[in-house]
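ARCHIVE CARD
CATEGORY: sequence design from structure
SOURCE FIELD: tokenized fold
FIELD CONTENT:
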């Protein structure tokens, strides 16, 4: 009996001793630190970091399982993981922007290692902005495009296109088109529908539009499309038909460009309105042929100087019978424009920025799409090509 008790005691001691050796020996892999190491470049707190090639996250002794990068507005930065151990952004970062980086890696035992860093990209010395039309809150005609003119020529158009969005309610496909390297316009395939609300969002702050030149702008503006008004000037007939929401509401006698100074054909969009303005032939290549200080009810149709405007100096019998202008479309008016009953005064009062004036049957070429806001003189297929 004593022998049996001694044997049982020996077994119990051996079992307890074996358990203590396993617990204190430090061989449990889950209790060991991760062998993975995360490196974030640039270092935490870095300033003046380059927007291109300045950010890199890597892992040694393991693989990356999570990389999250956000800017100071919480917007995520897209990136690409290579070989499981190197993460880099797929595009350029924005200048003058603070970024937060959180990365996690695991070793072959799936033990995690994490690192956090915050850094700020460089503040640019050379900048640009986009000057846009129409203005926030405007009600405009159905032909009004969104047009953005940049103060510096752009050499990275894709970056700019990613930073500018134009949307509409109700929704309609909208495409952009570059004119040169400093103008980007947006339009649908056909004229906007009346009542449409259009929104332009620009997030150009820190966007590198050309080497070393960065945007500084964040804007969001909305405008509304008013009633539809399409006016057609028939140069041969010397009259203009005004169609409002599909119904002809007025026919007005006109005088268009005379021989040698014909009016452009094509769809033109009213881009400016002036109750009275000066027109000087020297500014549009006509030398000293005319200089009229008080042209009434003038509405611009082209950058090159085409207007539809009031005319008090040609004599009322000219309108509807003779084309005698230097390329503009003239409507009978009184000097000073104070008589609201004249055709020019009526048309001015009933027109919006963005209304369309189409000229037909002139002995001249069709106006270029970028000569003013006359984007409708380009086919939709060509427009969607982008350039």
């Amino acid at each position: 009996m004593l022998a049996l008790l001694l044997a049982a005691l020996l077994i119990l001691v051996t079992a307890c001793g074996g358990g203590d050796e396993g617990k204190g020996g430090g061989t449990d892999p889950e209790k060991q630190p991760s062998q993975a190491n995360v490196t974030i470049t640039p270092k935490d707190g870095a300033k003046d970091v380059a927007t291109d090639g300045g950010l890199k996250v890597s892992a040694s002794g393991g693989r990356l399982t999570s990389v999250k990068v956000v800017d100071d507005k919480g917007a995520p930065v897209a990136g690409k993981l290579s070989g499981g151990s190197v993460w880099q952004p797929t595009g350029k970062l924005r200048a003058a922007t603070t970024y937060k980086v959180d990365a996690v890696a695991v070793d072959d035992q799936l033990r995690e290692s994490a690192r956090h860093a915050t850094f700020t990209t460089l503040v640019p010395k050379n900048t640009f902005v986009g000057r846009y039309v129409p203005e926030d809150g405007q009600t405009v005609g159905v032909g009004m495009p969104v047009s953005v003119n940049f103060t510096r020529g752009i050499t990275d158009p894709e970056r700019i296109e990613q930073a500018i969005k134009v949307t509409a309610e109700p929704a309609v496909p909208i495409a952009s088109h570059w004119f040169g390297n400093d103008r980007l316009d947006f339009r649908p395939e056909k004229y906007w529908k009346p009542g449409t609300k259009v929104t332009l969002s620009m997030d150009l702050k820190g966007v590198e539009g050309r080497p070393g030149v960065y945007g500084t702008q964040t804007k969001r503006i909305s405008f509304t499309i008013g009633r539809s008004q399409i006016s057609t000037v028939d140069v041969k007939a010397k009259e203009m038909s005004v169609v409002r929401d599909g119904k002809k509401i007025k026919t007005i006698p006109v005088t268009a460009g005379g021989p040698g100074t014909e009016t452009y054909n094509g769809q033109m969009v009213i881009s400016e309105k002036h109750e009275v303005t000066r027109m000087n032939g020297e500014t549009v290549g006509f030398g000293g042929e005319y200089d009229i200080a008080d042209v009434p009810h003038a509405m611009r149709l082209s950058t090159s100087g085409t207007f539809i405007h009031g005319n008090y100096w040609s004599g009322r019998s000219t309108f509807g019978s003779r084309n005698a202008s230097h390329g503009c479309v003239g409507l009978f008016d009184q000097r000073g424009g104070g008589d609201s009953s004249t055709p020019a005064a009526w048309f001015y009062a009933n027109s919006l920025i963005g209304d369309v004036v189409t000229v037909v049957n002139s002995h001249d070429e069709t106006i270029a799409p970028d000569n003013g806001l006359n984007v409708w003189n380009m086919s939709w297929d060509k427009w969607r090509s982008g350039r």
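CARD ANNOTATION: The CA atoms of residues 290 and 298 lie 16 Å apart. DSSP finds four helices and 27 strands in the chain.
SHELF: design records, drawer C
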